[in-house]
Amino acid sequence: MILVAIVGVGTGGYGFWTLMSYRMVSVPGGGMAPTIQPGTVVLYRWAALPDIPRGAVVLMDLSAFPDSGPGEGRAVKRVIGVGGDQVVCCTNDNLITVNGKPVKEPYTEDDNGYGRKEYRPFSVQVPPDAVFVAGDQRNNSRDSRIYVGMPGDGAVPLAKVSGVVVGLGSVLGAEPFPQTTAFVEAGLPGDPVSDTGFRTSRNLMFVGVGLIVLGVIGAIVSVVRSAGKRRRAVAIPPAR
Question: Angle at CA 40, nearest 5°, toward 38 and 41?
Fold first, then answer.
């Protein structure tokens, strides 16, 4: 049973170690509604990714924007353009285009609260090593679109991106975040984010804890049984 506990320590330790690649954050504001409501806890992978695909939802530092003051914190936004993309708003159907391809984004909410849809036209070339972001609540979101024409054209350097949202809920109970295929369906290259490693890590950690408990209980039972046998042996009178 000691061996079982040792295996549990190894399994649970590996699960815990890999789970440390993920962090939790409570989403402030309503800029990502209706996809993410204010106060929702999301799970994001903080480790650097080789690239961030279009459509990914990221946690970014608001200091990336030119009018940010000290200590403004972070925000969750959707990537609608990556380095080298030409992002334009909008078509006659009120769709953004990326490299000339209209993108249908069914997750957005664009009513301005007065029953009207309002769009601020823009055209921007996203610089290398940066992303262009927007909130899903398109008429109530502080994002890259506001800063087109200012230094940086609203682009967020990758160094200001903390991670990609992969789950909804706490690290111990998160479910996979629904990733969009809107940009792929528009004919743009790249694949949506696919990361459910937190579930595997979490399961390994739980299995490890279970094995440790089982091993400890088994060891205690073995000790108790051995002690009982010794007491019985002492109680038996020697043969004459």
Answer: 140
pTM score, two decimals? Answer: 0.80
Alpha-carbon distance of 135 to 139, in angstroms, equals 9
How high is the mean pLDDT in each 10-residue block of the chain (240 residues)? 65 59 84 91 75 91 85 89 93 90 89 56 93 91 91 92 89 84 92 70 65 69 67 59
Pick the CATH number of 23-194 from 2.10.109.10, 3.30.300.30, 2.60.40.780, 1.20.120.1760: 2.10.109.10
Domain positions in the chain are 23-194
- Rg (C-alpha) for the chain, rounded Å, is 27
Which stretches of 8-154 are assigned E, i.e. beta strand?
Answer: 22-26, 41-45, 57-61, 74-82, 86-89, 96-98, 101-103, 122-125, 130-134
| Structure token digits, residue 155 | 């682009």
Per-residue pLDDT at 105: 92
